[in-house]
Amino acid sequence: MNTQPSGDYLDLTGVCALLVEDNANTRTLIAEVLRGLGINKIFKADSAAGGWAVLQAGGVDLVFADIEMAGENGLEFVSRIRAAKDPHIAEVVVVVVSAHATEARVIKAGAVGANSFVGKPFSVSRLARAIAEGFANRRMLARAAAARASGPGGEAVEL
């Protein structure tokens, strides 16, 4: 998996995505867009509980989570992901999706640990940009953690 952007191209070969969305039409639409962007391994879940089961099986690199779902909502799901003891789950890239893209929701999504946010309806380019933002955000957070771990007087890390 090489998620480094090359010019205007983001190589998503080998990325495994999980779509957690209660609307079947939206799941299908996002899956088709992801296939068009080069992501061929896609799991779908209609609830946070189903999504959690897929995450625990391992191998997921990217999660799309709808905010408005019955039971555990998308923001609660993102919080659970970030609190996971397994670093492969806790550090997965998460893009939150919502038909109600208010400033408050975008802020709340970031506060619970989302790497990016996409409002519905969305364009293919906006979805691609959200994926690129999500992977870039994860790399930035990893660099910041490495800088903190080096402690005072440690080696400077470019953010």
| The CATH homologous superfamily | Response regulator
Low-confidence stretches: 1-7
CATH class: Alpha Beta
| Number of strand segments | 7
Notes on the protein architecture:
The structure is a single chain. By secondary structure, the chain is an alpha/beta fold. It has a single domain (5-150), classed as Response regulator (Rossmann fold), CATH 3.40.50. Helix content is 47%, strand content 18%. It has helices at 24-36, 48-57, 74-83, 87-90, 103-112, 124-150, and strands spanning 5-6, 9-10, 16-20, 41-45, 62-66, 93-98, 116-119. The strands form two sheets. It has a five-stranded parallel beta sheet, with helices on both faces. Strands 1-2 form a two-stranded antiparallel ribbon.
Name a few traits of the molecule.
159 residues; alpha/beta; Rossmann fold; 18% strand; disordered N terminus
How is this fold's topology laid out?
Elements: E1 5-6, E2 9-10, E3 16-20, H1 24-36, E4 41-45, H2 48-57, E5 62-66, H3 74-83, H4 87-90, E6 93-98, H5 103-112, E7 116-119, H6 124-150
Parallel strand pairs: 3-4, 3-5, 5-6, 6-7
Antiparallel strand pairs: 1-2
Structure summarized in a few sentences:
This protein has 159 residues and is an alpha/beta fold.
